[in-house]
Amino acid sequence: PEVVGRRRGRYKVALLKTLQTDGPGRWKIRQIQDAVFWLEPSTVAELVRELRDAGVLSYEPTRMSYRMTPSGRAVSALLAALTLPHVEPRRLIKYLSLYEAAFASLLAGIKAGR
Q1: pLDDT, tens digit, for every residue of 63-100?
Q2: Where are the beta strands (DSSP E) in the chain?
């Protein structure tokens, strides 16, 4: 819920989908910003912080890099199942905006099931 159900959820989903297909699983902030070239670097940094706060990404200070947590891998797997493969990030954001109500319904069902 912290990823999809909050502010800029569509962008977080697109960022995670991009990271799923990019690189070895550890990224410096500059690598993430380069991979998510379609957003401003400062916006990418904010999204990464929000994903870290949500427990989807973790930061390793000794390596100065981010990686997906086990929860993050689970979220990514769920997102892969719910979204179309091989879709350009900008188009994915448009698709997700059309289905925002469906995500809200799914999140309400998840929260009710707790």
Answers
A1: 999 998 888 877 777 777 666 666 676 776 666 666 56
A2: 26-27, 57-60, 65-68
Contacts of residue 59, defined as CB under 8 A and 6 or more positions apart, other chains included, come to 52, 65, 66
The CA-atom distances, in angstroms, between 62 and each of 45, 59, 66 are 19, 9, 11
- CA angle 53-33-67, nearest 5°? 45
- What is the enclosing helix (H) or strand (E) of 11? helix 9-20
Please enumerate, as own/partner, the contacts of 75-78 that have beta carbons within 8 Å and a separation of 24 or more. Answer: 75/3, 75/16, 76/16, 76/17, 76/19, 76/20
Cα 101 from chain centroid (whole Å): 18
Helical (H) or strand (E) element with 15: helix 9-20
Tokens of 50: 């929000």
Give 69-80 as a DSSP string: -HHHHHHHHHHH
